[in-house]
Amino acid sequence: MTDLLNQRLQQLASPQHIALLGQGLRGVERETLRVDRHGQLAHTPHPPALGSALTNDLITTDYSESLLEFITPAEPDIATALQRLDEIHRFVHTRLGGELLWNASMPCVLPPEDEIPIAWYGSSHIGMLKHVYRRGLALRYGRTMQCIAGIHYNFSLNEGVWDVLRESDRGIDASVSRRDYQSERYIALIRNFRRYSWLLMYLFGASPAVATNFLRGRPHQLETLSDDTLYLPYGTSLRMSDLGYQNNAQANITPHYNNLPAYIRSLAHAVSEPYPPYEAIGTKRDGEWVQINTNILQIENEFYSSIRPKRVIYSGERPVQALSARGVQYVEVRCMDIDPFDPLGINLQTARFLDVFLHFLAFDDSCLTSDEEGVENRANFMATVKQGRQPGLQLQFKGRAIGLREWGEQLLERMAPVAELLDKQIGGSVHRDSMAAQRAKLADAEATPSARVLREIRATGNSFPAWALQNSAAQAEQLLADPLTAEQTAGFVAIAQASLDAQREIERTQTGDFDTFVAAYRASTLGNISV
User: Fold this and answer.
1) pLDDT at residue 226 in the model
2) Mean pLDDT of the region 497-524
3) SS (H, E, C) 94-160
4) For residue 159, with 0-12 CB atoms within 10 Å meaning exposed, 13-18 middle and 19 or more buried, which class applies?
5) What GO molecular function terms would the record report (predicted)?
6) Which residues is 152 bridged to in the sheet?
7) Less CB within 10 Å around the terminal CB: N or C of the chain?
């Protein structure tokens, strides 16, 4: 353990400070495809019984009309957030009309590209903007990519924690504001995340196989398991490999994570710099909008990063404007696969480990990074998602080879005091228990989710689609067998109805035309950014 990490843990372990560790916030966003009982993509509209995808804060859609997204409130204890996620699942399953939730990151056997429905949010200007953005995604990445699902984990520390650390941070200029210090500490967390996130891919990657038609005839290096299934023997997460969200334009985006202004400048450039192939397409075809603009990114959220600095935005505000004006409020971890062995896509033990991991990243030393280190970090991540379970796999750390298993054990050893401190604050041993479960995976690659997925696929005729359908149907029955109370159900029904009413009100009261609305939105891209 570094002296700095030890010092910070000792500070926070004091009686006057330890309670702050229980006052940060956690939240989960979970994506899941709707499919029919044959495992075919659902072509039905977003179920009205789930409310408005535009205005329901708990249940919406992601890129495709068939890709549901469930959003928990942010809670001090992740167990509370996951309980709400469980309730959302139980409600949704009763409103699907016989459809199922596909509980895997990689999609079912998909129809032709033009038959994958793009999410629809109604006729309001803001609803149409969301739809046009997704039309742009279809042009840039293809609709098939819109059907990949994952877990996003939102994490923040109580601001009092940063105050405690700031008081003893000898390297900080006294003139640096509380806001700026907090932002730079979150950016330092992100630097460490990019160094060590390969570990999450080994421990929790659960997408080593994919339906054959996902590739759409593209060249690949996957092996054939059966007529309908491709895989990598030692792969952990095809979702996070170069089969997932890849784009030539995005390859030119190299955000710098040495300070917040540099990160903001990188994204601000990407959302304002035209990209010739997109300019050749234009924003309209036959008078219909097909993308918001012809820039490298239509909006900031189009940048597919494994982690993002975030700030809750105000109405009409852009993400980079919020970060520039008020600094970083939390981070969003975006690389987690759906856990196909839990109906919620994530379990509490995994979440407890994520809390240990993210606290460790926040408290440990985080030196500034370089382009060379960025290349090394990316190579480690990609090696793990493609070959993570290969015996003796070597990664690179500061230009030197190190075994994945050895490095993982070192990291868990460094995290152990963090788990002890979190357990001391909450009581019990849940964080240390989560660590023990991960040590077992490092000791035996067959204990990882990706290895288990392959074993179960092989036991289901070597078919990923057949296994995922069978698994999803069994979990649906499990949830339906334990329904919500009448009071809980009524609460969700009321939320759904209120969201439908809210969408209608937006559509009734809006003024002006859509072209003017888009022009105003695009003009705000750089309007309030000072870096």
Assistant:
1) 98
2) 94
3) CCCCCCEEECCCCCCCCCCHHHCCECCCCCCHHHHHHHHHHHHHHHHHCHHHHHCCCEEEEEECCHH
4) middle
5) glutamate-cysteine ligase activity
6) 29
7) C
- pTM exceeding the 0.85 threshold for the entire prediction: yes
In a domain, 407, yes or no: yes
How many domains, the chain? 1
Cα gap 67→107, rounded to integer Å: 10
The per-residue pLDDT for range 386-444, each reduced to its tens digit, is 999 999 999 999 999 999 999 999 999 999 999 999 999 999 999 999 999 999 999 99
- Per the structure, the complete domain to which residue 280 belongs is given by 3-166+178-523
CA torsion sign, 379 to 258 to 7 to 307? negative
Residue 156, in any domain of the structure: yes
pLDDT digits (tens, 9 = 90+) for 134-161: 999 999 999 998 899 999 999 999 999 9
Q: Distance between CA atoms of 233 and 201, rounded to whole angstroms?
A: 15
In a domain, 72, yes or no: yes
Burial class (CB in 10 A: 0-12, 13-18, 19+), 358: buried
Domain-located, residue 288: yes
Tell me the C-alpha to C-alpha distance, in Å, between residue 125 and each of 75, 174, 389, 489.
32, 46, 48, 31
Tokens of 311: 């700030």
Residues 457, 295: Cα–Cα separation, whole Å:
42
Among 120, 95, 104, smallest CA distance to 43 is for 120
Q: What is d(CA 361, CA 2) in angstroms, rounded to the nearest whole number?
A: 12
Question: Nearest 5 degrees, angle CA 188-CA 192-CA 196?
Answer: 170
Q: Classify 29 as helix, strand or coil.
A: strand
Token pair for 413: 């050893």
Q: Is 240 exposed, middle or buried (0-12, 13-18, 19+ CB in 10 A)?
A: buried
For residue 435, what is the domain's CATH number? Answer: 3.30.590.20
